[in-house]
Amino acid sequence: MPSGGTLQIETSNIKFDREISRQIPDARPGRYACLSITDTGVGMDEETKRRIFEPFYTTKAIGKGTGLGLSIVYGIVKNHKGFINVYSERGRGTTFKVYFPATDKEPVDDLTPPRIELPHGTETILIIDDELALLELTKELLEGLGYTVIAARGAMEGIAQYKERHDVIHLVILDMLMPEMTGNQVYPILKEINPEVAVILATGLSVGEKVDEMISLGVNDVVGKPYSVSDLAAHIRSVIDSKK
Known about the structure:
There is one protein chain. The protein is 33% helix and 25% strand. It is an alpha/beta fold. It folds into two domains: 7-101, Heat Shock Protein 90 (2-Layer Sandwich), CATH 3.30.565; 124-242, Response regulator (Rossmann fold). The longest helix has 14 residues, at 229-242. The radius of gyration is 21 Å and the shape is globular. The model has no long low-confidence stretch (mean pLDDT 85).
C-alpha cells in the first residue's frame, strides 16, 4: 500500500462439504481454520495473481525483493495440508485466505514445553543462505551450542568460503532456493571441491523431485524451513556423527 490504507486480519472456522470442496482447488471436505488478510492496496492483475507463488517471481524493483516470500508461505501451508485462495482487483486491493485443517484434539492446559537438552558440538559449520536475518539468527544459535560458524550470504559467497576453508569445515547447511544459484546448482560445485562434503539441505518449499534428486546425488539430510533450533541441532549431530 504505497499511499497507505487499511490492513484487516480475521480468523474464522469454516466447514466444507463435498460439493463446495469440488469447486475449490486443493480443498477437501472437512473443517478448516481460516486466516484472512485483506489490504486496500493497488491489487493485482490476472497474470500477476497467477504467478505470485512461483519462486523468484517479483514485481518489485531489482534489489527490493527476492520473490521467495509467498513461495515459502505456499510451501509451508501445503506441508500442513492446507491451501491458499487469493482474491484481487486492480485498484481495489487483495485478500489472501489461508486454510488449515482443523483438529479434533482437546486443548492442552499446560503449554510449557518440556526442557530438552540440545546436542552440542565443537565442529565448524558453513551456512549458505541469502536471507540475512535467518543467516544471523542461525549463526547465533549454533554458536550458542558450541560450534564455530561461517555465515555466507548467497551462493557465490558460500562457494568462495568453502573453496578457501573446506579443510576446516565439517558441515554445510545449504539453502535450496537463492537468487544467484539454487542449492542443486551449488551442491555439485561443493562436491568438486571436496567429494566428501557433508551437506544438509534447507528448504521451505514443496520441491520433492529436486530434493529427491539431490539426495540421490549425495546430500546427507534435508531440514524444512522454518526449522526449530532443536530440530536443526539434531540433524547436524546426526550428519556429523555419521561421517566419523
